[in-house]
Amino acid sequence: xxxxxxxxxxxxxxxxxxxxxxxxxxxxxxxxxxxxxxxxxxxxxxxxxxxxxxxxxxxxxxxxxxxxxxxxxxxxxxxxxxxxxxxxxxxxxxxxxxxxxxxxxxxxxxxxxxxxxxxxxxxxxxxxxxxxxxxxxxxxxxxxxxxxxxxxxxxxxxxxxxxxxxxxxxxxxxxxxxxxxxxxxxxxxxxxxxxxxxxxxxxxxxxxxxxxxxxxxxxxxxxxxxxxxxxxxxxxxxxxxxxxxxxxxxxxxxxxxxxxxxxxxxxxxxxxxxxxxxxxxxxxxxxxxxxxxxxxxxxxxxxxxxxxxxxxxxxxxxxxxxxxxxxxxxxxxxxxxx
Amino acid sequence: xxxxxxxxxxxxxxxxxxxxxxxxxxxxxxxxxxxxxxxxxxxxxxxxxxxxxxxxxxxxxxxxxxxxxxxxxxxxxxxxxxxxxxxxxxxxxxxxxxxxxxxxxxxxxxxxxxxxxxxxxxxxxxxxxxxxxxxxxxxxxxxxxxxxxxxxxxxxxxxxxxxxxxxxxxxxxxxxxxxxxxxxxxxxxxxxxxxxxxxxxxxxxxxxxxxxxxxxxxxxxxxxxxxxxxxxxxxxxxxxxxxxxxxxxxxxxxxxxxxxxxxxxxxxxxxxxxxxxxxxxxxxxxxxxxxxxxxxxxxxxxxxxxxxxxxxxxxxxxxxxxxxxxxxxxxxxxxxxxxxxxxxxxxxxxxxxxxxxxxxxxxxxxxxxxxxxxxxxxxxxxxxxxxxxxxxxxxxxxxxxxxxxxxxxxxxxxxxxxxxxxxxxxxxxxxxx
Lengths: 338, 433
Ligand code: SF4
Ligand code: SF4
Description:
The complex is a heterodimer. By secondary structure, chain A is mainly alpha-helical. Chain A has helices at 26-48, 50-74, 84-94, 102-118, 130-141, 143-146, 176-185, 198-203, 215-227, 234-249, 254-259, 263-270, 281-301, 308-325; strands at residues 164-165, 168-169. Chain A is built from 14 helices and two strands; from the N terminus they run H-H-H-H-H-H-E-E-H-H-H-H-H-H-H-H. In chain A, helix 3 (84-94) crosses helix 4 and helix 13 runs antiparallel to helix 14. Chain B is an alpha/beta fold. Chain B has a six-stranded mixed sheet with strand order 1-14-13-17-15-16, with helices on both faces. A four-stranded antiparallel sheet of chain B has the order 2-8-7-4, with no helix packed on it. Chain B has a four-stranded parallel sheet with strand order 11-10-9-12, sandwiched between helices. Chain B starts with 16 loop residues before the first helix and ends in a 5-residue tail after the last helix. Classes of the chains: A mainly alpha, B alpha/beta.
C-alpha cells in the first residue's frame, strides 16, 4: 500500500488526561438560570411597565459593573463571562419591589457583588448569597422604601377596606402577607379568605417584589432547572415542604403561605445557589428544611412577615457546619474519616 | 447474590460505533520494531540479545529475576539493529531492542514456551500483563496471599473508556477463548465461580459469551457507566463489596482480569504462545478506523498510517482511551502491551476551553461523580495551596485517577492534575499507600 496524497500532518497537542470533558460549563449553567427567570422578569415588565425595566437595568448593570471594576482594580482576570454577576443582578431586581428607586438598585448591586462576593475572593468563596446580602442591606438601610409595595391602579387592595395594617397606612406596606398577618392578629376581623389569593398569587400579583408577579412562572422555572439537573430538587422540596407543613401546623393556610411572599423565589432560585448551599444531597435536604423552618417562624412570630431573605442568609451561615458533619465516606474506609 | 452499583460515575459519549462492528484485522509488519524492555508495572527487563543477533518470533529477548516483572519476546523473525534508550508513550525513557524484521515472515509460527513448570510459571514466562491498560504482570495476580481465598474470578469486559473496542471485539470474535481463560484462571487460584462483567452497550458480546457460559461461568450485564471497568468499582458492581483501604482486591474474595488478558492466558497455557501482539483500536480522526492486531513494538505512526492517516482537524493523539490515556508528543513511540487504543481527537473534541479563572463554584458535580467517594473540589483547593497534609486527610491517595471529576467540572478545574501532584508529593514524603 503506497501512500497516495500525503495525509494531513498532526502537530500533536499534549495535555494531561482526561482529554474530554462534559459540554456543560459554568456559563451554560448561569444562562439556564437566566432563562428560567426570564418569563418572570418579562411578565413583571409587562404588568408593571417602565419601573420594572429601570429596576432590572440598575441592578444588573451595577452588579456587572462592580465586578468588572473590582477585577480591574485588583488586577484579576475578568470574570463576567461566567454569567454569575448577571444572575446576581437579576435575582436582586426580582427580590425588590418594582417601585424601588434606581439608585437603590445600583447600591444593592454594589453591595451584593462588592461586599458579599468580591471581598470574599470572588465566585466560589462567598459564604452568603450575594443577591440576598444586597437585598438585606437595602431593607435595613431604607426600610420604609422597600415596604412600599403600592401596586398600580386597579390593584386588588383598593377594593378592600384595610384601615391600618401593621402600623402603616393602608397605602403602604399592604402586601397580601401583611394583610394576612394583620387579619390573624385581629382574630379574623377583616374576614380575609386566603384561598381567594391563590389565583392572583399564581398568575398576576402586583403587590410584592417584582419576582413575585407570578408563582406559576417561578414554579415552571424551578422545575425546568430541576429537570436540567442544574439545581437539586432537595432544596426547594425541603424548603416548600417545611413551609407548608409548619404553616398548617400553626393553623394557617399552607398553600397561601407557600405562594405568598418570597418563598418560591427563595426556594427555587436563592437557596439553590451552589456557592452558598451544602455539597451533599442530605445536606441540601437539611438546608432546605432549615430555610423553611426559619422562614415560617419569622413570618409567624417575628417582626417582619417577609422573612425569606433572612432565613436563607441564616442558613447560608450554617453551611460549613452542615458540610463538615456530612462528609462522604471514602470507598474502602469503614469510618467516615480518618 | 447481592449486586450493587458502584458509586458516582459519568456517562461520557461512548463514540464506539466507528469500530465496534469491525472485525480484528492484522496490521502490517513495520520496517522496524522498537520493543521496550519495560512494558509493564514492575522491574524492567534486561536485554538478552545484542546488536547483530538473529532473533526468532517468540524468542525471549528480555527478562529479569524479579517477582513483579514480565519477560519480553521478539514479535518477529529478524535481526537486532540496536539496543538503545527510547521514549515511551508514558513519557519515560527505557531501554529497548530495535529489530529489523526479515522480508519474509510467517506470523502463524512462533517459538513456543517451554512446557516446564506449573501454570503460574508458564503465565509468567509468556510475558502476559493486564491488557486493559494497567499492564500489571498477570502471573503476580495469580498468586494471591495464602490467607486470602479467591472465590470469584471476575473477567472485566466492561471496556468503559469511550472509543475503545478491542475488548469488545475479543469477546465477540473469541468468546470461547475468553471463557477458557477465565476457567484456567479459576483453576489456578481455586475459585469456584467466574463472572464475566459486560456493559449493556455490548449486547452482542454478552450474547456470544452466553453460548459458553454455565458450569460455574456467568455472564453479567452491567448498566453502562464509566469507570465500571476500574478494578475496585467492578468488584463493587459484581459482588457488592468494597476492597478495604490498603488491602488487595483478594480480600473481597475477588480476582479481576481483563477479558483480553484471559484470552492471552488461555493462549499461553494451551498453545505455549507468548505475548507478541495485541489488538489496538485506532479511531477518531483517522481515515480508516479499525481494531488492528499490531505487533508489539510497531510505531504508533505506522499504525495511524495503516489506518489511512489522520483526517483534517486532528489535534491530539492519545495512547489509550480519552479518560485515562496519554497524549503523545512523539508519534513514533511503540505500541506496548498496555496500548489499548490510539485515539485521534480534534481540538474541538478535546476538553473545551477554560472559562475565566477556573474557580470552584461548589456545584458538587465532582464529588457526586467520584467513584471513590472523595471530595475532589477540596483536594483541588488544598493541592493548589500545597497543603499536602490536608490532601492526605482528604484521602488523596485513594484517588484512582479515573478523571470523572475533571470531566464534569463546569469551570474546568484541572482536578486530576492537582490530585496527581498531591499524591506525588505524599508518596515522595513516604506516605503509606
Ligand atoms: S480522578 Fe480521583 S478524585 Fe477524581 S473522580 Fe476519579 S477517583 Fe475521584
Ligand atoms: S465540579 Fe468543579 S466547580 Fe463543581 S464543586 Fe467540583 S471543583 Fe468545584
